[in-house]
Amino acid sequence: MLANRWRRVGKWVPLATFLAVGLTGCGFLEGPQSMVQPAGPVAQDQLQLIGSSFWIMVEIFLVVATVLVLAIIRFRERPGQRGLPPQTEGDNRLELLWTIVPFLLLALLAVGTVKQSFSLSASPATKNALPIKVVGHQFWWSVQYPTYNNLTTANEIHIPVGQKVLLELTSTDVLHAFWVPRLGGKTDLVPGKTNYMWIEADQPGIYRGQCAEFCGTAHADMRLVIDAQTPQQFAAWTQAMLHPQSTPTSALAQQGMIDFAKAGCSGCHTIAGTNFEGQVGPNLTDLTGRLMIAGNLVPNTPANLAAWIRDPQAVKPGALMPNLHLPENEIRAIVAYLESLR
Prior knowledge:
Blueprint: H1 2-10, H2 13-30, H3 41-74, H4 92-119, E1 130-137, E2 140-145, E3 151-154, E4 156-160, E5 165-171, E6 176-179, E7 187-189, E8 195-199, E9 205-211, E10 223-229, H5 231-242, H6 251-262, E11 292-293, E12 298-299, H7 302-310, H8 312-315, H9 328-340
Parallel strand pairs: 1-5, 4-10
Antiparallel strand pairs: 1-2, 2-3, 5-8, 6-7, 6-9, 9-10, 11-12
Helix pairs in contact: 3-4, 6-9, 7-9
């Protein structure tokens, strides 16, 4: 009867395994934030260490499982057996073996880990790297380029392909964690402290990431984009950022600039080339060129931008941007102004 019960349970094992892989592993492996699809030397080294550790653990499992199965078969209860089998005390050779072997395996893992820790340290690997300051906020990212007249953007980091980038990471409020899986592992952003990490992209593309440390209600929607560009594209982007088009050209956009200030938006946001110098919210200088808005939550379209201004909580629950209850004509004008920024 017990055997029949186990046979019935066994029929569901393949299906359960398939669902576990399909619902968890596959989506992660094929998604845009896959650590098993490295696109830079940091992520490649880290994946190699994870791979070597994994196979060591697999070998340990196979050895232990084999010994366990053999012990179960060899020392199972025999028909007619009475009482306990002969008892023996510990085997010194066996105890020495299972002490030395784990020690050697841990030492092997430690060598790779320590070696990688030194190779991925901020110095001297990043001696000629491009420095970028990243500051975590609830629930968005501020990005500043010290070597380019401190030009500032938000939620998108533009980097040149093939060049090391030194990230200086800190936070203004609570703990955050910077994580772009295809370019490198996680690093904490700690209030009052600066942590460092370096990354490098091997090929142009969009690399997505997110905050990996619970930081509040909208933590899951605190997303990040790294735009790896050719050196020529990166140079063009920096020049456009240093010389922004901030003067509205249409009558509706001009009215939107007035409404932007009247609504108090300028008290929270900076737009280069204007007297809007708020430091509470994201810098909006290059808003038109960004792929996403609301902390990289929704595509950057006029309709989504209007919805965000109309009711931020409806788009991103937990966002700290208030609902100003603006009339629709002012929302349209402000959208037209923001869409005119280059």
